[in-house]
Design brief:
- It is built from 15 helices and 20 strands.
- The protein is α+β, with helices and mostly antiparallel strands.
- The protein has three domains: 1-217 and 328-393, 3-Layer(bba) Sandwich (FAD/NAD(P)-binding domain); 221-322, Succinate dehydrogenase/fumarate reductase flavoprotein, catalytic domain (Flavocytochrome C3, Chain A, domain 1, Alpha-Beta Complex); 404-489, Up-down Bundle (Methane Monooxygenase Hydroxylase, Chain G, domain 1), CATH 1.20.58.100.
- The strands form seven sheets. A four-stranded mixed beta sheet has the order 17-15-10-20.
- A hairpin with a 2-residue loop joins strand 6 (145-153) and strand 7.
- Helix 1 runs parallel beside helix 4, helix 1 runs parallel beside helix 10 and helix 2 packs across helix 3 (68-87).
- The longest helix has 20 residues, at 68-87.
């Protein structure tokens, strides 16, 4: 198991008492996107709600690209996932009557967001799962051990290479590996993701021969705190669900009259905010009337962050901007988290299950991580592994060029909220102009894979907006798949690299 966010920990815990070696780049509970998750987990557990409605909202947000069978499976599994997490000690917020305290977020037609400690749901879940993992003798934690390569032989996955904190590289033989390595937001200049979210798992899976799915769909959250930090603090969608509205510097509510306004799906709100900023306006989230004086109680973490930046949401509008937040694309997997490489599973944000389609519905990410963590564990328990390969000497992978600093501005320019062919060709050429070392690095490879996926989808759908192809090609879309072979073919399939 590589990665110890909610997806990795749920998988490991559900496999107990079967032995699991958990490889993580930092300390258990100390890193990853789960810590940063504010909103909660979507589940049809309230009155007047049911999984079918949850499924409809998920598909509507996904803009014709969701896998309907996966959507039905995950939304039907959501109530049991909440019960399972509560049994593991997650302190979900309750009403005075003892029921779940449910929030509302964009794209949802019912209040179905289960949260813990207000806006600290991710941290509360992670702390509970970490405590369970520490008490589970079948889980061996390999801390400060960074994945630097998957090893494959003729039978499939044969093991992993990890690099310890002291620089030593070790080969760990294994016939079954689960990737739970998170997303790609660290590749973007404006992001809400931790710096470690660099898509390493995607690249290692591709190098092992796995297909990657729907890489072009990067979700930009419309309301990151607009300050000079990286990553940017997130202002949860739940704040808008509690009544806050988006305004410009003149107090004009520019989303008024557009469908459900601030509660439209994320891609719709993000494009509106982006366009208004491009027209020269500043954007603010005005929470003075609602939630008003309840803000510190409902959103204690966000309130504290705002105060640190000299803002009191009860009396001052919060400056916000779009930022890279979640990747709908990932390693292509089936309904149990299996990739097309024998012995390789993927769960959480690194995986593309078909649940999110072209645009993730708010608070479906933690839900997917839990449901697929449980399903992958069930599949692994049924699997009859081949004999482990011998722990023979393996040539460790070479150190790669650290090209991130040069790549981030290129990615931000060519793969932002709006894309076009000219910008993507310019970005492709700019990456190649940095040299062979950059192109071959993990970050360089990922940037080029994203560009080729975005270039080849000649339509605007969900989170992927092409200004040169502004229309949806058809109501029902098709997923895109890429492999490393496409990089050798170039953007136009002729092997030609455009000049920077």
């Amino acid at each position: 198991m590589v990665g110890a966010g909610v997806a990795g920990l749920v998988t490991a815990l559900a496999l107990a008492p079967r032995p699991v070696r958990l490889v993580l780049r930092g300390r258990l509970g100390g890193d990853g996107s789960t810590l940063w998750a504010q909103g909660g987990i979507a589940a049809a557990v309230g009155g007047g709600d049911d999984p079918a409605l949850h499924a409809e909202d998920t598909e509507r947000a996904g803009a014709g690209l969701c896998d309907r069978a996966i959507v039905r499976l995950v939304t039907a599994s959501a109530p049991e996932a909440i019960v399972r997490l509560a049994a593991w000690g997650v302190p979900f917020d309750r009403t005075s009557a003892g029921g779940w305290a449910l929030g509302l977020e964009g794209g949802h037609r019912r209040r179905r967001i289960v949260h813990a400690h207000g806006d600290a749901t991710g941290r509360a879940i992670l702390e509970a799962l970490v405590e369970q993992a520490r008490r589970t003798p079948s889980i061996l934690c390999e801390e400060d051990a960074r994945l630097v390569g998957l090893v494959r032989d003729e039978a499939g996955i044969a093991g992993v290479h990890v690099r310890r904190g002291d620089g030593h590289t070790e080969y760990l033989p294994a016939r079954r590996v689960v990737l739970a390595t998170g997303g790609i937001g660290g590749l973007f200049p404006a992001t809400t993701n931790p710096p470690s979210a660099l898509g390493d798992g995607l690249v290692f899976a591709a190098r092992a021969g796995a297909r990657l799915r729907d890489l072009e769909f990067v979700q930009f959250h419309p309301t990151a705190l607009d300050v000079a930090e990286r990553p940017l603090p997130l202002i949860s969608e739940a704040v808008r669900g509690a009544g806050a509205v988006l305004v410009d510097e003149d107090g004009r509510r520019f989303l008024a009259g557009r469908g459900r306004a601030e509660l439209e799906p994320r891609d719709v709100v993000t494009r509106a905010v982006w366009a208004w900023r491009r027209a020269g306006h500043r954007i603010f989230l005005d929470a003075r009337r609602a939630p008003g004086e309840d803000f510190p109680r409902l959103f204690p973490w966000i309130h504290e962050v705002c105060l640190r930046h000299g803002l009191d949401p009860r009396c001052t509008p919060i400056p916000v901007r779009p930022a890279a937040h979640y990747h709908m694309g990932g390693v292509a997997v089936d309904g149990c988290g299996r990739s097309d490489v024998p012995g390789l599973w993927a769960v959480g944000e690194v995986a593309a299950t078909g649940l999110h389609g072209a645009n993730r519905l708010a608070s479906n990410s933690l839900l997917e991580a839990v449901v697929f963590g449980l399903r992958a564990a069930e599949d692994l328990a049924r699997d009859s592994p081949r004999p482990a390969p011998p722990s023979r000497a393996q040539t460790p992978p070479p150190d790669e060029e650290d090209a991130l600093g040069r790549l981030v501005p290129i990615v931000g320019e060519s793969l932002g909220v709006e894309r076009d062919a000219e910008g993507l060709r310019r970005g492709w050429g700019a990456v190649h102009a940095l040299g062979a070392g950059t192109v071959a690095s993990r970050a360089g490879t990922l940037a080029l894979l994203l560009m080729i996926a975005a270039y080849r989808r000649r339509e605007s759908r969900g989170a992927h907006t092409r200004t040169d192809f502004p229309l949806v090609a058809s109501p029902l879309g098709r997923s895109s798949f890429v492999t490393l072979e496409l990089l050798r073919q170039g953007l136009d399939g002729d092997g030609h690299t455009p000049e920077a």
